[in-house]
UniProtKB/TrEMBL annotation:
GO cellular component: nucleus
Lineage: Eukaryota, Fungi, Dikarya, Ascomycota, Saccharomycotina
Principal cellular location given in the protein's record: nucleus
Top-level lineage group: Eukaryota
A molecular-function term among this protein's GO annotations: histone deacetylase activity, hydrolytic mechanism
Organism annotation: Ogataea polymorpha
InterPro entries given in the database record: HDACs (IPR000286), His_deacetylse_dom (IPR023801), His_deacetylse_dom_sf (IPR037138), Ureohydrolase_dom_sf (IPR023696)
Protein name per its UniProtKB record: histone deacetylase
Enzyme class: hydrolase
Catalytic activity, EC: 3.5.1.98
Pfam families: Hist_deacetyl (PF00850)
UniProt-listed GO biological process terms: heterochromatin formation
Subcellular location: Nucleus
């Protein structure tokens, strides 16, 4: 990665060139010359360009070999050259780039994750993503290594969560007995809505242990919740450990529960595996960047590192009066040493692929350039897809959202931990995650047609036969105007 460039408007373009070049992994011995197709830089050694730009490339800096194909060079330069040019390439360009594959990708998967299927808001989703990945041959891929999660203990959860809360989450319960309690609670809630219980009754309920830990409403206690919390947290921590030992790409699609707080559950999230994974990564990395693409603000993670300048959190989310969780409105936030290290990108309704790509190219990537993280943790919540059944707020497609995440990982070349998150159309969510995994493994995912034959009937509507059937934006207005995005950029980057 590059050192911070000197601030000068004249240097912006070469800086972007250098950054773009640094994103491409080329063997070090391929000595550099930028050739052809670029009049200004043709034949100029990278060191000269760097000198002109008044900054020093870091030791890992590599430049393009003379043999770089014209399409590859054109693609890189088009990214580097014009602020109007999308960060993205078309999938055909991507294929032609022929970037080296990461030596190893790990995914936390396996039968031991059955408990993840029990999460009430995403029933069966873990099995479905696993079946899709298996059906497209990703689990048997030569570069894929599967990890069975090592369940997290109370001590493990207490690295972030309050111990009392961790004990409550992992407390063994007689589930049969508790199911009765649950249905009683549901009856109580319904009754209260109908008859407006007395204030005293509500106070009594608020004092119950479950309510004080947020284990009510959208975070009810559910059968085998202890096992669920243990494997979700353990899975992300284990993926983080893999990344420490193999700085490539690690995945836990069952993770990304970004709303869980230190001592209470919120927004379908019980245990904050993202925070626990980042804490584990901190053992090796001193600068970690968390990037959250879920429809909702990644409040639990942002709050956890609000005081830290070792973890830069960036959350792109929908924000509006009354929209959960109601935070993440201030573009630049943080406290104490962490001031400026919490970035929020609150969006309006209708965010489309092109707008998200612009945000990534013109806000997120410059933050990467400036912060120079040693590791990325990317939350790939899928509730912003145009097909989401619970939320009809954003308008993203699998092909472009997935490609954007892939490019962020591959072009930065930074070790990355990918996590799941929201997503309430299970099949479309699992397709997105399967697609990202396939791209990272170098598969021709655009060619996927039929869904695999052996998907569980209970998880998939038997009429669903094709992978790309629903990959078309819905008819909705994009309220995030270019002017609005420029305002956000200006507030965050000060330009
Ligand atoms: Zn969400």
């Amino acid at each position: 990665m590059l050192s911070t460039p000197a601030a000068s408007p004249h240097l912006i373009w070469p800086t972007r060139i250098l950054f773009a070049m640094s994103l491409i992994a080329i063997s070090p011995e391929e000595h550099c010359l930028l050739t052809a197709r670029n009049e200004e830089l043709a034949g100029t050694p990278a060191a000269s360009i760097a000198a002109r730009c008044s900054f020093t490339p870091a030791p890992g800096f590599r430049t393009l070999p003379t043999t770089t194909s014209s399409i590859k060079l054109a693609s890189i330069l088009s990214f580097a050259r014009s602020p109007e040019t999308s960060f993205m390439s078309s999938s055909s360009e991507l294929a032609s780039l022929n970037l080296p594959l990461p030596p190893l990708v790990s995914a936390v998967l396996g039968q031991s994750l059955d408990a993840v299927d029990l999460l009430p808001s995403n029933e069966g989703r873990q099995s479905l993503v696993q079946q899709l990945m298996k059906g497209y041959g990703l689990l048997d891929h030569a570069k894929m290594q599967l990890l069975a999660p090592r369940p997290a203990s109370v001590d493990d959860l207490a690295k972030f969560h309050d111990r009392d809360y961790a004990v409550e989450l992992l407390r063994p319960r007689n589930w049969k007995e508790h199911e009765n309690e649950l249905s009683q609670l549901q009856r109580t809630i319904l009754k209260r809505r109908a008859t407006r219980e007395s204030r005293d009754d509500r106070r009594a309920q608020a004092q119950a242990p479950c309510a004080s830990y947020g284990l009510v409403f959208d975070c009810p206690i559910f059968p085998h919740m202890d096992e669920y919390c243990s494997v979700v947290a353990g899975g992300s921590v284990q993926a983080a450990e893999f990344l420490i030992n193999n700085p490539t790409v690690a995945i836990n699609w069952g993770g990304g529960r970004h709303h869980a707080h230190k001592s209470h559950a919120a927004g379908f999230c019980y245990v904050n595996d993202a925070v626990l994974a980042i804490l584990r990564l901190r053992r090796k990395y001193s600068r970690i960047m968390y990037i959250d693409f879920d429809l909702h603000h990644g409040d639990g993670v942002a709050n956890a590192f609000k005081l830290s300048n070792n973890v830069l959190t960036v959350s792109v989310h929908r924000a509006d009066a009354g929209f959960f969780p109601g935070t993440g409105l201030k573009p630049v936030d943080g406290l104490g040493r962490g001031t400026g290290y919490e970035i929020n990108i609150p969006t309006k309704k209708g965010l489309c692929d092109a707008s998200l790509e612009w945000i990534v190219a013109h806000i997120v990537v410059p933050k990467i350039e400036g912060y120079r993280p040693q590791c990325l943790v990317i939350q790939c919540g899928a509730d912003g897809l145009c097909t989401d059944t619970e939320f009809r707020e954003w308008n993203l497609t699998i092909s472009r959202f997935g490609t954007m995440v892939y490019q962020l990982v591959r072009r930065t070349g930074i070790p990355s931990l990918l996590l799941g998150g929201g997503g309430y159309n299970s099949l479309e969510t699992c397709k997105l995650w399967c697609y990202i995994t396939g791209l990272i493994l170098g598969e021709e995912c655009q060619a996927w047609a039929q869904l695999p034959d052996d998907l569980d009937d209970e998880l998939v509507d038997f009429r669903e036969l094709e992978f790309w059937t629903h990959d078309t934006p819905r008819n909705m207005a994009e309220q995030n105007t270019h002017e609005y995005l420029l305002c956000l950029q200006s507030a965050i980057l000060g330009c």
